[in-house]
Specification:
Layout lengths: L13 E2 L4 H4 L2 H13 L3 H17 L4 E4 L2 E4 H16 L2 H15 L5 E8 L1 H18 E9 L5 E2 L2 E8 L2 E15 L5 E8 L5 E8 L6 H14 L6 E3 L20 H16 L1 H6 L6 E6 L6 H10 L5 E5 L9 H11 L3 E5 L17 H9 L8 E7 L7 H4 L7 E4 L5 H14 L3 E3 L2 H7 L5 H17 L8 E3 H19 L17 E2 L5 E2 L3
Parallel strand pairs: 1-2, 11-13, 12-15, 12-16, 13-14, 14-15, 17-18
Antiparallel strand pairs: 2-3, 4-10, 5-6, 5-8, 7-8, 8-9, 9-10, 19-20
């Protein structure tokens, strides 16, 4: 580092970086500025400013020796002011908003302030709710924002989703001066985004009349009772999902006993929740659907989402939950919007794995969310698992977390026949073959393969020139499609031993199977 100029005058010494704090006291400068602002007379302010100007003039020739050359004290001061301005916002802007705030609440009032930040889609829904709350329950006196010079400008707004196909404008930057219609309390509410991208709601009021956080409580109450999530279907990150209200339990082909059990434990519980509460019984319930893939577990969940009535539903998959804290947030919202339904697809991939098999940081959070310190009154959890035997015992053997475990197994011949007719009818496909005989050949397969059989049959018919409004699946077409689908099903259940990724040994000739397809690798 260059040495200071030993031959210069005292007030013109070159200062190194270590000597900076001795010659520039930033806190002292702030105190002087504060004294100026607090001085009540114009003459007093001018006198103090004059004193500071004289001090600055006396130090004007003082410079600092840096690797980039000499920098004067005045230049350093200007740089610090610019840095403070960029971090804290223009001083005039703050002053004007503060003057308006004091004028509205009361110049002699003791101001209480409370700020709360919100992230992501939740933050957008909250700032929308703030605007609606003020519109419905307050008398709005002023709505504005300020530019760098303190001039008033229109509110800054952005478009947000409050439904699957509904978008509205909400304030992202602005001040609201409002009087509560019932209590007559005055609040100043500032909405803005901070440096981390959070949506912030900063509230100010007269502390002698209550706390500024009382406004946030009003927002939370409005959000839970009238907010966009009420009665909606949303993902884990609170994005709205479209539903098909025409798809119900009649469209889910399951064994009658299984269907009745699901109906009772979900829809029946939801319908009788108030009566259970009157009896002093628990109004939270966990239902776990266990069974191999393709047996109708997801179809049932879809029926629940589409026919939940006025309840709010949260649809959660492992793709939605990547960090600790998400599950806790989901159940916080579920409790706030009770009665509500939380559907967790493939819970074994979302922290439910047995601790004896492997560890998952989400398991503890999941256990606590289902039955922990917080009461899940009015919340029904429906989860699915393809491998219930691998779930942690604290999940599968703990009423209070999952009260009912319902096995959704492979469909029998009658269920396969019913499913085939159901799929054909719902897609305007005419059947011209013996459904019972085809169902018998599908024995041991899931409902998902039945849907694929009809899809493949429709593809063959269309490729042969069939009209879309007169689509008929003949005996010939279903036979070709059945052979292809059974062959694929065999490959799926018994992976090729000759696969390069598995390690090949000896190829075997395919043999006809009893199901009518081919056992390719026996």
């Amino acid at each position: 580092m260059p040495k200071k100029n030993e031959n210069s005058k005292k007030n013109n010494e070159g200062l190194n970086v270590e000597e900076f704090e001795e010659h520039f006291d930033e806190e002292a400068m702030k105190e002087l500025e504060k004294q100026i602002d607090n001085n009540s007379t114009k003459g007093g302010k001018e006198l103090m400013k004059s004193d500071i100007d004289q001090d600055m003039m006396a130090m004007q020739d003082t410079y600092f020796v840096t690797p980039w050359g000499k920098i004067s004290h005045v230049e350093i001061s200007n740089l610090l002011k610019m840095a403070r301005k960029s971090l804290n916002g223009p001083e005039l802007k703050y002053c004007q908003s503060q003057l308006d705030l004091n004028e509205f609440i009361g110049k002699d009032a003791d101001i209480d302030t409370h700020t709360k930040g919100y992230t992501g889609a939740y933050g957008k829904l909250i700032i929308y709710s703030v605007g609606k709350l003020i519109e419905e329950e307050f008398e709005l006196v002023l709505a504005t924002r300020y530019n760098d010079k303190g001039a008033k400008l229109p509110l800054a707004k952005t478009s947000i989703k409050i439904g699957p196909n509904i978008e509205v404008d909400a304030t992202t930057n602005g001040w609201h001066h409002a009087i509560h219609k019932e209590s007559k309390r005055k609040f100043v509410v500032h909405i803005y985004r901070d440096f981390d991208g959070e949506y912030c709601v900063s509230c100010h009021c007269d502390s002698t009349l209550g706390k500024a956080s009382d406004f946030i409580k009003l927002v939370d109450k409005w959000f839970a009772e009238k907010g966009p999530l009420k009665g909606a279907v949303v993902s884990a990150d609170l994005n709205f999902l479209e539903i098909d209200v025409n798809y119900g339990m009649d469209d889910v082909v399951l064994d009658e006993k299984i269907a009745n059990s699901l109906q009772l434990n979900v829809f029946g519980f939801l319908k009788n929740m108030e009566s259970l509460n009157t009896l002093g019984l628990s109004t939270s319930r966990g239902v776990l659907l266990a069974g191999p893939p393709g047996t109708g577990k997801t179809s049932f969940c879809r029926a629940v989402l589409n026919n939940k009535g006025e309840s709010t539903a949260f649809y959660v998959t492992s793709d939605d939950v990547s960090t600790v804290g998400t599950i806790t947030e989901i159940y916080k919202h579920a409790r706030a919007f009770a009665p509500s339904i939380v559907i967790i697809e493939d819970i074994d991939t979302l922290g439910g794995l047995d601790r004896r098999i492997g560890s998952n940081p989400l398991l503890g959070e999941l256990l606590n969310a289902l039955d922990g310190a917080e009461d899940n009154t009015g919340v029904i959890t429906v989860a699915t698992s393809n491998h219930v035997e691998h779930l942690d015992e604290a999940l599968r053997n703990r009423p209070g977390r999952f009260d009912a475990i319902i096995e959704v197994g492979l469909p029998d011949k009658d269920a396969l026949s019913a499913l085939m007719l159901n799929v054909a009818t719902s897609h305007n496909i005419k059947i011209n073959f013996n459904v019972g005989k085809v169902a018998a050949k599908l024995s041991g397969l899931t409902g998902a393969w039945v849907k694929e059989l009809l899809t493949h049959s429709a593809l063959i018919a269309l490729d042969e020139g069939a009209a879309i409004d007169k689509l008929v699946i003949s005996e010939k077409i279903i036979s070709v499609a059945l052979e292809e689908v059974l062959s694929r099903a065999n490959i799926a259940t018994e992976p090729p031993t000759h696969s390069a990724t598995i390690g090949a040994t000896t190829k075997k000739s395919p043999k006809a199977s009893s199901a009518g397809g081919f056992d390719l690798y026996n």
